[in-house]
Amino acid sequence: ANYGPNPICKGCLSCSKDNGCIRCQHKLFFFLRREGMRQYGECLHSCPSGYYGLRMPDMNRCSRCRIENCDSCFSRDFCTKCKTGFYSHRGRCFRGCPAGFAALEELMECVEGCEVGQWSEWGTCSRNNKTCGFKWGLETRTRQIVKKPAKDTIPCPTIAESRRCKMAMRHCSGGKWRRPAKTKDKKKKKKNLMERAQKQHSIFLATDKTSQ
C-alpha cells in the first residue's frame, strides 16, 4: 500500500500511514529513520552508512555502528570502512596510524611498517679516515632493520646518523704536526700588513723632516 506520493510501505509486512513500516518481509532489514521529531520505519535490502545488518529470528534490523568515525561496519565493534580522512586498523578508525604501523594511502589502512632496532654507541671520532691531526671530526652510530615493511613503498626510518665531534688527539704521534695552510696564510698576511705600516711610517717621518 502507498500513502501519499512516496511508497513508504514498500517491502513491509505491516505498515502505518504515520510510522511507515512496522514489520518487514523476509531477508529485508528494518531501519528506523529519524527526521527531526518524526521517525518512521523502512524495509531495506542493505543498511545505510553507519549501520550494519543484524539478522534476528523475529525480524532483521539495522543496528548502529558503535565505533567512532566509522562509515560501514561488519558488527557493532568492528568497522570495515572509516569516514573520509580516517585510517582503518583492526576494526577501528584513526587519524594517524599507531606506532609500528604505516599508512597505506590508497586504501586508507594501517599496515605493518618497518621496525628498526636500538641505536648503537657512537663510533670513534675521525676525519678523512684519521683519528688525529684535526681538531674536529665526525662520529657515526647505526641501527639494524629488524622487520621489513609489508609494502615495498613504505620507507624505513634512517638507520645511520652522524654528528660533529672533537678529536681526542689533535697531534698525531710519530710525525711532525703541521699547522693548516689557512693559519700560515693568516700569519703571512699579518706580517705583510706590519711591514707596510712600518714603511708608510718611515716615509711620513722623512717627509716631515724635509718640510721642517
Number of helices: 1
Overall pLDDT metric? 80
**How large a portion of the residues is in β-strands, by DSSP E?**
35-45%
Radius of gyration from CA coordinates? 40 Å
The major β-sheet equals:
2 strands, antiparallel
What order do the SSEs take from the amino end to the carboxyl end, as H and E?
Answer: EEEEEEEEEEEEEEEEH
Number of strands: 16
Q: Could you say what the CATH topology of the largest domain is called? A: TSP-1 type 1 repeat
Helix content: 10-25%
Low-confidence stretches: 1-6
- Supply the helix-strand structural class: alpha+beta
CATH architecture of the largest domain: Single Sheet
Termini separation:
132 Å
Any idea what the shape is? Answer: elongated
- Strand order of the main beta sheet, please? 1-2
CATH C-level of the largest domain: Mainly Beta
Number of domains: 3
Organism: Dicaeum eximium
GO cellular component, one term: extracellular region
Keywords: Developmental protein, Disulfide bond, Glycoprotein, Heparin-binding, Secreted, Sensory transduction, Signal, Wnt signaling pathway
GO molecular function, one term: heparin binding
Mind explaining what this structure looks like?
Residues 176-191 have a biased composition (Basic residues). It is found in: Secreted. Keywords: Developmental protein, Disulfide bond, Glycoprotein, Heparin-binding, Secreted, Sensory transduction, Signal, Wnt signaling pathway. The protein is α+β, with helices and mostly antiparallel strands and 212 residues long. The protein has three domains: 7-64, Hormone Receptor, Insulin-like Growth Factor Receptor 1, Chain A, domain 2 (Hormone Receptor, Insulin-like Growth Factor Receptor 1, Chain A domain 2); 70-112, Hormone Receptor, Insulin-like Growth Factor Receptor 1, Chain A domain 2, CATH 2.10.220; 115-172 and 188-211, TSP-1 type 1 repeat (Single Sheet). It contains one helix and 16 strands. The protein has one helix at residues 181-211, and strands at residues 12-16, 20-24, 29-35, 38-44, 51-54, 61-64, 70-75, 78-82, 87-89, 92-94, 101-104, 109-112, 115-116, 136-142, 145-147, 160-166. Strands 1-2 form a two-stranded antiparallel ribbon. The protein has a two-stranded antiparallel ribbon with strand order 3-4. Strands 5-6 form a two-stranded antiparallel sheet. A hairpin with a 6-residue loop joins strand 5 and strand 6. The protein is elongated.
